[in-house]
Amino acid sequence: MKRYIPLLFICFLIGTLMSCNEVKSSRTENNSENEEEIEKPTSTADLFEKEILSKDISAPWGITWLDDSKALITHKQGSVYVMENDEITDSISGLPSPYTSNQAGYLDIKAHPKYNENGWVYMTFAKPEGDGGSTTLIRFKLDGNKATELEELYQTMPITNTGIHFGSRIIFDNDGYLYFSTGERGVKENAQDLTNDMGKIHRLQDDGEIPSDNPFYEEADAKKSIWTYGNRNVQGMVYDAENNKIYATEHGPMGGDELNLIEKGANYGWPEITYGIDYDGSIISELQEKEGMEQPLHYWDPSIATCGLMLYTGDKFPEWKNDIFSGALAKTHVARLTLDDEDKVLNEEKLLDGIGRVRQVAQSPDGYVYVLTEGPGQIIKLLPKK
Questions:
Q1: Which of 53, 112, 177, 262 has the most CB atoms less than 10 A away?
Q2: Residue 311, C-beta contacts closer than 8 angstroms, at least 6 positions apart
């Protein structure tokens, strides 16, 4: 009789897995063996309720927290607002005016990981130059609500007057290196050209110096700050501190928005490989794969216009632990992605459908989720449903 117990047990397991309507993610933290693993439901729309904190900012772009109760929010038209205890209280003075054509303006904002020690806040914006502009990284400190000690760390080149594809997101890794993205400014060839800054993710020290171990540091004529290239327009980027991974989303054309795992020196293919076509219906490339070019972890066809990216690590929504959330500008929702430990997407759920053009999804220090939308402009807080 004993010889049949393992077989029956295996059959029971197989039957359970085949009939299960839930997806279990293996991308969990290194919990103790005795800690119960949380099931990953495919649908979580009934787990939260939303609170609209503000409708007064028409085009919020980025958000960063200075402490548990105070955050800064960029407004594309050229303002940085202060939010304390979930209320907009003031704006920051002393910052440079942006180039504001079409998609240009104030972009992302990020407090230094050691903000409590050094007081630095980092921001990307479209810096005006001549009749155009370019994505530029600055940092500053705060004296009350006034920006002080402002430093320009990196201006991407060349300057153009196209008002599209500026990127941009900012992250820090565990070693204190800063990464920021810039779009190819609508010129497809820029993304494969290592002699310019466009269509890339850049890696710097926190003072703007370029690390000598960057992948193209020794390559003649290449921009030394480049970490990856072949990126069309990265407007979502997040760092997984637990596993030392960078994830990024970038806009495709008609079809072909991508979620990518960002790796040193990698080429993400634009425009030589793509899962999309051009806006006039013409073929950009017949290829979806090519040797030496990375495949996305996931792509969207039709495009959702990915923007903003969050890896949830808090405790307010245990069902979302280690899930990735992307905003959707064109499709006006938040996409929740469950991945396994091989970064395979197991499940995609559409949340907040029709909420507006989602520009950013972010986690506060205390584990709540904030969603920034434009058209209409809103700051929304997600709370566990009581």
A1: 262
A2: 238, 239, 240, 247, 322, 323, 324, 325
pTM check: above 0.70: yes
Rounded CA-CA distance 140/78 in Å is 15
Q: Using the predicted structure, report yes or no on whether residue 132 has a pLDDT greater than 80.
A: yes
Nearest alpha-carbon partner for 164 in 192, 196, 199: 199
- Environment class of residue 184 by beta-carbon count within 10 Å: exposed (0-12), middle (13-18) or buried (19+)? buried
For tokens 């327009």, the residue is 233
| Domains by residue range for the chain, with CATH | 44-384 (2.120.10.30)
Give the active site residues: 165
Cα within 13 Å of Cα(19), Cβ side: 6
- Tell me how far apart the alpha carbons of residues 353 and 129 are, in angstroms, rounded to a whole number: 39
Q: Which residue has the higher pLDDT, 293 or 16?
A: 293
